[in-house]
Amino acid sequence: MSYKSALSLIRVLVGLLFVAHGTQLLFGWFGGDGLAGTIKLTETLGLRPAPFWGLLAALGQFGGGLLLLLGLLHPLGALAVMGAMLVAILKVHLTHGFWIASGGLEYALLLFLLAGILGLAGPGSYALDNRLSLRLPRPLSFWAGLAAMILVIGIGIASSSTA
C-alpha cells in the first residue's frame, strides 16, 4: 500500500467516525441526544448563544467528517473536526486531566492531532478533490483556516460564562 493510499484510508476512517458522531449530535442517531440535547449540553458548558455553538459543534463533526470522508474541499473538513475537538478539549476534558479513563483530554487530543495531520498531508489518492480537480491553496488554506478557527473559538471561549 502506498503512502497516498494509506492516507486515504485513514482519512475515510476518521471521516466515518465523525459523520457517525455528528449524526448523534444532529439527529439523535446511534443513541445520541439530537440537536436539542447538543444545544442543552452547549448551554451547560457556558457557551452563549447555545443554539449557535451547539449547531456549530454538530455541523463541525458531521460536516467536517463528511468532507474528510469524501476528500472534498481539503483541508476544510480537517479544520472543522479540529475546531470541534479543540472546544471539547477546552470546555469538557481539560479539567479532568490527561487520561480518558477519568474523562481527560487523551482521546480528543488524539483526534485533534490526527485531523491536523490529515489537514497538512493532503486528502490522499482517492479523494473527490482529485476527481473534480479542486485545489485549495496548500498549505496556505490550512494555516489561514487554523488561525481563523482559533480566533473564533477563542472569542467563544473568552465570552462564555462559567454556568
UniProtKB/TrEMBL annotation:
Protein location: Cell membrane
Keywords: Cell membrane, Membrane, Transmembrane, Transmembrane helix
Topological relation to the membrane, as annotated: Multi-pass membrane protein
Main location: membrane
Residues passing through the membrane, by range: 12-32, 52-72, 79-101, 107-128, 140-159
Family: Belongs to the DoxX family.
PANTHER family reported for this sequence: INNER MEMBRANE PROTEIN YPHA-RELATED, OXIDOREDUCTASE CATD-RELATED
Protein name: DoxX family protein
Species of origin: Ktedonobacter robiniae
